[in-house]
Amino acid sequence: MRHRSPRILSAALAACVPVFGLMAAFGPVANASTTHVSQKAEALAIARNALKHLDVGWRPTDHGVAVHRASITGSTPTSSSNWSGYADVDETFSSVAGTWTEPSTTCTSTEALAAFWVGIDGYSSDSVEQDGTLVECYESHAYQYSWWEMYPTNDIQVVGESVASGDHITGTVTRSGTSYRLTVTDSTHTANSFSTTQTGSDANSSAEWIAEAPCCSGSSVYPLPDFHTWTLSGATVSTTSGSGVISTYPNYEITMTGSSGDTKAAPSALNSSGNGFTVTWEHST
Q1: At what angle do helices 32-49 and 17-25 cross, to 10 degrees?
Q2: pLDDT at 35
Q3: What is the pLDDT of residues 47-63, one digit of tens each?
Q4: CB-side exposure of 103: number of CA atoms within 13 Å?
Q5: In 3-state terms, what secondary structure has residue 266?
């Protein structure tokens, strides 16, 4: 995908470190629980503000693309520096959907980000209509959100901020002409659910189910936190000529690799129904 001007999340977070330092320096107060709630709210506000210019959906141009012909069905292995999952191609797509349980993420003091989403476009075009969930690691704490984005028209739009590991999530993107309906349903914590309609004129040339290390830290992607596994199920997709599951259409099986060639996150083969898979975390960079 086309590379926009890098927005540096690490700088934004680093600039906020003194806030945490000042809070830690405060002496005893009468109501410790109130102070804890206030500090948590402040930390959440800082973390959320840092996401305003995050590039989810951006995919570097140095990804590996295997030769793929429309007449061949089945999965074609390929690689990316920040995507792992599956992308259907060779059709004009009108809807995509998938369900997952929000993974349990292990955070360290390192700033790290992982996004889990479904979308139309992006694999072979410069735009993505997408929605899903995001985990942001900061100061060993995981902040989790629901969000949508019409990339590159706008920056990530955070909606819910109480997503938690174990939440049952469903993401859908449905197109009608140039109108896109983006919906995330969190059936565990319903306050994170939303549906919005946006307008765009795009290629609609692919459909994706992706675990991503978002951009940008300088000129590279952010470290990928250890989300252990992300399992996508119940995937469906529609085109102008029909509908089906991931395996119905020619697709790419995408492995995320680091600069040294090591695997960062790898998808399993599709399940027997062709509508699900598991991405396993291996390395942060």
Answers
A1: 170
A2: 53
A3: 666 565 566 665 554 44
A4: 24
A5: strand
Sole residue written with tokens 């990530």: 156
Dihedral sign of CA atoms 36, 40, 41, 43 in order: positive
pLDDT in the model for residue 139: 79
Residue matched to tokens 């479904």: 118
Question: Hey, what domains does the chain have and what are their CATH numbers?
Answer: 47-281 (2.60.120.700)
Measured CA to CA, the distance from residue 229 to residue 31 in angstroms comes to 40
Task: Give the per-residue pLDDT at 100.
Answer: 98
Residues facing residue 79 across a β-bridge: 64, 255
pTM, entire model: 0.81
CA nearest to 37, candidates 23, 22, 49: 23
Q: Mind giving me the DSSP string for 122-187?
A: -SSSS-EEEEEEEEEEETTEEEEEEEEEEETTS--EEEES---TT-EEEEEEEEETTEEEEEEEES
Structure tokens at 12: 């934004």
d(CA 54, CA 130): 14
Longest dimension (CA), the chain: 71
| Residues in Cβ contact with 149 at an 8 Å cutoff, skipping those fewer than 6 apart | 56, 57, 128, 130, 131, 155, 156, 157
Q: Phi/psi zone of residue 173: left (φ > 0), alpha (ψ -120 to 50 degrees), beta?
A: beta
What stretches in the chain show pLDDT beneath 70?
Answer: 1-74, 109, 216-219
To the nearest 5 percent, what fractions of the chain are helix, strand and coil? 15, 45, 45
Q: Tell me the CB-side half-sphere exposure of residue 247, using CA atoms within 13 A.
A: 12
